[in-house]
Amino acid sequence: DVKVTQSSRYLVKRTGEKVFLECVQDMDHENMFWYRQDPGLGLRLIYFSYDVKMKEKGDIPEGYSVSREKKERFSLILESASTNQTSMYLCASIGTLQPKVQFFGPGTRLTVL
Amino acid sequence: GNSVTQMEGPVTLSEEAFLTINCTYTATGYPSLFWYVQYPGEGLQLLLKATKADDKGSNKGFEATYRKETTSFHLEKGSVQVSDSAVYFCALSENRDDKIIFGKGTRLHILP
Q: β-pairing, B11-14 with B106-111?
């Protein structure tokens, strides 16, 4: 089975801190995604990556950056955390067989104080 | 653009009741359709999928039929259990890229 892991389940940070959220997948998937999930808004795509060192903005990239130095690892970076970035963050990777199914990690619930 | 609309929750039912969660979509091509489920404290996982018109996806007693004429993919289960309490997301993929468009989710509460 595909396994997508995220470095933390719960994280509490202070406004202005730099925050790293790590995601690792073990199925050699090329494409990986970062979403945030908020009540009433569903999942919103922040960034995605088609390959190592490749990245593209999603629907809400402001205030975030990403890093993909190795195929299995996709990091989300909050350069200067703000309270409006308090949310659940979900990482996903996608398989190669059609229809392409996204496999999700367990999520990181980030609170910015 | 492409979009997915699903019924707002929360939906509260008694155990063994019949469940329907409505989902309609807008797409320019011929998308694949999915239902994902998110149990408390977990990430999303695929529940079922359908790739073309009239396909029926099924899993764990849940079913959904791809209806092109009504652009719908409603989720149904004949007899729900307390363990089905979760958030359910309808989603589509155009298959041209790897992006998936999600509905906003429907929270389901099943009472014993």
A: parallel
My answer on whether omega of the bond before B10 falls inside 30° of 0, hence cis, is yes
The answer to whether A23 faces chain B, any CB pair under 8 Å, is no
Cβ neighbours, 10 Å, residue A16: 10
Q: Give the residue from A37, A44, A91, A103 with the most B CB atoms within 10 Å of its CB, the best one to mutate.
A: A37
A104 CB within 8 Å of a chain B CB? yes
Per-residue pLDDT tens over the stretch B2-37: 899 999 889 999 999 999 999 999 998 889 999 999
Are the C-beta atoms of B89 and B25 separated by less than 8 Å? no
Helix (H, G, I), strand (E, B) or coil at A83: helix
pLDDT digit string, tens, across residues A29-73: 889 999 999 988 889 999 999 889 889 999 999 999 999 999 999
| Helical (H) or strand (E) element with A112 | strand A108-112
Q: What is the pLDDT of residue A97?
A: 74
pLDDT computed for residue B95 by the predictor: 67
Please answer yes or no on whether A98 and B44 come within 8 Å at the CB atom: no
Residue of A nearest to B47 (CA): A101
